[in-house]
Amino acid sequence: MHKLNHAFPRLPTWSIAFAVALTVFSGAVPCAHAQAKPPVSPSTEPLKLVVGFAPGGALDILARAVADHLRKSTGQTVLVDNRPGAASRLAIDYVKRAPPDGNTVLLASSAPFVIFPMTYKSVNYDVERDFVPVAHLVEFPGVISTNVTKPYKTLPQYVAWARSHPTDGWVGITSLGGTLHFSILAMAKEIGVPLSPVPYKGGGPLVTDLIGGQVPLGADALPSQLELHRGGKVRILAITGTRRNKLLPDVPTAKEAGINGFDYASFSYSAYVPAGTKPEVAKRLERALVDAVKDRQVFAQLVSIGMEPTGLDGEALRAQLRAEHAFWRPIVQASGFKSEE
After folding, report:
1. Alpha carbons 146 and 280: distance in angstroms, whole number
2. Model pLDDT for residues 272-305, shown as the tens digit of each residue
3. Regarding the domain with residue range 142-239, which homologous superfamily does it belong to in the CATH classification?
């Protein structure tokens, strides 16, 4: 396995502006919709929110919360279409080929558009060419977790265990080539133990194996595991990012636990439509989706599971994608990782 040999650089200047925008949006009091609006799409076809993972994960939770709001606010039929496989590339390809009529919306993280083109052998899409970025919806940290019966109760204890069991260094993740993958490679180099990322088709299948003890460590999105941690089904050892999460005040960041490389391995989910979608249709979707995550009830639901609604427009999303590409490119190149898929 190739290992990361490039230090994580200082967070670029763009992130400061994005953080300011996030503060403005998430600090405002979310408003409930006052009255029903016209359908999001100009046609009578159902609106499909396409998710590249199995039901039960963080992205699926977001999609269903947004779908419920859109059904109530517009009266339109809204479906969540789960298309797991190939680290969400099956869903991306499906939406890319869909008619650009505003009826098919991809909900995805930035990794398939930012990092996958640098690492995957066959990526037959380009975000600039094939998609219209519609809206940035939420962001939240990742978690490093394990089964509650394992002998290690903290991340340092896991590191000690991994050093004494070097052939058992499997780490479950929901996709190869994402930010958590590269953070795991950085951790492997730091502790001097080979850690092998094992990809799952979604957060649901991953936690099933964590609970069953089939995988000694997992790394995924906080919303996928928060309730299971609270219920004593899994144990979250650390979170990504540079500050503790208010829903888990007793859980340290990975850096606090002595492991570097997870500072910028957090998540964000956004919406995209196929290239060729009319600007007025994309704008209508943007307004509807931003309104959905800022709706009082949806806002509270998302915050309760660890998501921070952002509600940024398509132009802000486009700028973020370009900035993330500039940030991760030297890190990915230094890792030497290439997927054979």
Report:
1. 46
2. 999 999 999 999 999 999 999 999 999 999 999 8
3. Periplasmic binding protein-like II (3.40.190.10)
